Amino acid sequence: MSDLRSVALTARAWPFEEARKVVKRVGDSVPAKGYVLFETGYGPSGLPHIGTFGEVARTSMVRRAFRELSDIPTELFAFSDDMDGLRKVPGNVPNQDMLAQHIGKPLTQVPDPFGTHESFGHHNNARLRAFLDSFGFSYTFQSATACYQAGKFDQALLQVLRNYDAVINVILPTLGAERQATYSPFLPICPRTGIVLQEPIVAHDVDAGTVTYRDPDTAQLVEVPVTGGQCKLQWKADWAMRWYALEVDYEMSGKDLIDSVNLSSKICRILGGRPPESFTYELFLDENGQKISKTKGNGLAVEEWLKYAPQESLAQFMFQKPRAAKKLFFDVIPKAVDEYRTWIEKFPEQDQAQQLENPAWHIHAGNPPAPEADLSFGILLNLASVANAEDKSVLWGFITRYRPDATPQSAPLLDRMVGYAVQYYQDFVKPEKKYRAPTEQERAALADLRAALAAMPAEADAEALQNKVFEIGKTHGFENLRDWFRALYETLLGQSQGPRMGSFIALYGVNESIALIDDALAGKAA
């Protein structure tokens, strides 16, 4: 056993805790299918979103941890439920009148409103694959339509038919009286219209492998096979059948699907299968603490996050405390960036056990990049603010003076952060900047700070500058030094929160910082 594997056996990071569940499940033997299967599911009626990223990223972290614990091959299936019927016309696509004519048909039988793919389902599947590929995820795409129509699910569907009554008895107690009277796990695809029907099944024939329903338009009885893509299953039965047919070993899902996981697990056992190991993650909240909803549009899109921060910071956000509800809005982005940067900086100094607890190990599949210049995103934001920066070159002018060895080429992550900081400043900080005049106590302290900075030796570093700022605050009777720092932020930077002042002054420049103080004392900033 390698040293790293022995350490991984007791690693406390949640992906290793989850991976050990899978190791216990499969033991030392390669499953008959030839691999351990991790799965994520996707409903292709809409576009990929930040939850899609989170689920695939987290599942990939567990998969990577498993590979540190076991030599058994693994697969990650990104499964698209593209045989679902089109329930309504999305509001954000063209040719809506055309789509309205195909309500109820499987998504892979609905024409593509964009005119670029074989169907609307194929279009959205392509968007999903491009989305996952853009983040470098390793996965195998699976289409429900392809699996149903190619017969990959046939034996499992016949097993559902054999256990028809037992499956129904799991679901019926969860339904209202009206729905109980019509429920069937099988949804026939009408041979006449191509629509996924929600009609009652009036008979099922295990020997023939068929179900019979009454056509809602002609009132005639229609018998169809449950195999070959001529029927699909209702959601919870479909999930269970998929677990059984594919022998899924691990799948995570959101808190809102706890009941579905429980019911699908029962059905999977009825079919003779073993439900996958599961993990329930908490849902995201908006800035007001309300559950994020695609319908309400109160969430934060992946594209919006990536406009202001690197994808690694989003992975960092997903890694931290997945079982805790977290607010997901623009204000969390700078913190996530700096948390990611901090973990990258710690990694080289850590021993193996500590590295396996480090989010950077999981974000970068065990091989994080080397640290770069010690500049936080918060510092860069404040630099962009005082410099009123509109492009990266302005910030790089300060950075190269502070760290002559740092260049956009030698510090690519820093270069990306500089660009993000400028964009974030322009969109969020600049519109909210509001300076205030200093109080008499603050004016006296600022004047002393100006004098102290002017007397500092040219080689004074960030720590020496920080100590001087502390000393001035104490000398001028600020009982809580946070009030002194808040005063600096509000009078010099025009905001209520800010950076570690010593680091900021070292980066921005002593003379430039003195000029900020002069403006505040002269009332120019306000």
Question: Can you put this structure into words, describing what you see?
Answer:
The structure is a single chain. By secondary structure, this protein is α/β, with parallel strands linked by helices. The chain folds into 4 domains: 218 residues, HUPs (Rossmann fold, 3-Layer(aba) Sandwich); 79 residues, no CATH class; 56 residues; 83 residues, Arc Repressor Mutant, subunit A (Orthogonal Bundle), CATH 1.10.10. It has 24 helices and 12 strands. A hairpin with a 4-residue loop joins strand 5 and strand 6. Helix 17 crosses helix 19. The chain starts with a helix and ends with a helix. The model has no long low-confidence stretch (mean pLDDT 94).
Provide a concise account of the structure shown.
By secondary structure, the chain is an alpha/beta fold. The protein is 49% helix and 10% strand.
Keywords:
single chain, 526 residues, Rossmann fold, 4 domains, 24 helices, elongated
Mean pLDDT: 94
CATH superfamily of the largest domain: HUPs
How many β-strands, per DSSP? Answer: 12
Per CATH, what is the topology of the largest domain?
Answer: Rossmann fold
Portion of residues within helices: 40-55%
Instruction: Tell me the domain tally.
Output: 4
Strand order of the biggest β-sheet = 3-2-1-9-10
**Structural class based on helices, strands and sheet pairing:** alpha/beta
CATH class of the largest domain: Alpha Beta
Taking the sheet with the most strands, its summary is: 5 strands, parallel
**Spatial gap, N to C terminus:** 65 Å
Please give the count of helices: 24
Give me the CATH architecture of the largest domain, please: 3-Layer(aba) Sandwich
Radius of gyration from CA coordinates? 29 Å
